[in-house]
Specification:
This protein has about 220 residues and is of the alpha/beta class. The protein has one domain: Alpha-Beta Barrel (TIM Barrel), CATH 3.20.20. About 40% of the residues lie in helices and about 20% in strands. Bound molecules: pyridoxal-5'-phosphate. Pyridoxal-5'-phosphate binds next to strand 8 and helix 9. Pyridoxal-5'-phosphate (PLP) binds next to strand 8 and helix 9.
Length: about 220
Amino acid sequence: MDADISENLKRIRFEIGEAKAKYRKPDDDLRIMAVTKTVPFERVNAAVGQGITLLGENRVQEYLEKKDFYSKEAEVHFIGSLQTNKVKYIIDSVSMIHSVDSIKLAAEVDRLAAKKERCMDILIEVNIGGEESKSGVSPDRLYELISEASEFENIKIKGLMTIPPIGRSESSFEQMQRLFEDIRTKRPEMNILSMGMSSDYVAAVKYGSNIVRIGTGIFGSRK
Ligand SMILES: *Cc1c(COP(=O)(O)O)cnc(C)c1O
């Protein structure tokens, strides 16, 4: 039943290995996240059994229904758009939130993290294509958001995340890489760039991604 997952991961690891050898330094960190939306927990655990150590969750409700059944060997990052009133449901069990795109959301994560006496790692989501329909902060407001959000004591900004416009992955990733490198000269602790999905992870590796978020490529198409 899960043979497809093992085949898919073999292919993905091979392609990432090739791209890494070509474009990156050998010791560059690069993780494959398995994106679990609509996937039954048994299949998620099968991926963990194949060496996946990072899961990506989009939907709060679906995550809450599945999380107790997940293998404890993988850590969970929240990657979907997040309403401030839902942060309380995930603050205990995820180790990073990739989709922070406003000071209001950053403030709520900070407030709840403080209450739990923890520090939450976050990424700032960038709307690199300037698309109206998409979440994420626009590139020209990114620096302001980083500077404001870095005042909070119970969140730590670890880097950037993006979902590029359809058909413009490569140029968007290149822009993201430039932003990321520029920010890193001032804030070396921001060392994570989360980009690349099933259709464009090879290009993302080329432009410096260190978390590729792959759903259908691992689990097959969503029902
Ligand atoms: C669904 C999703 C992915 C994975 O998409 P695939 O095309 O299935 O690989 C990655 N990132 C986010 C934010 C997603 O919502």
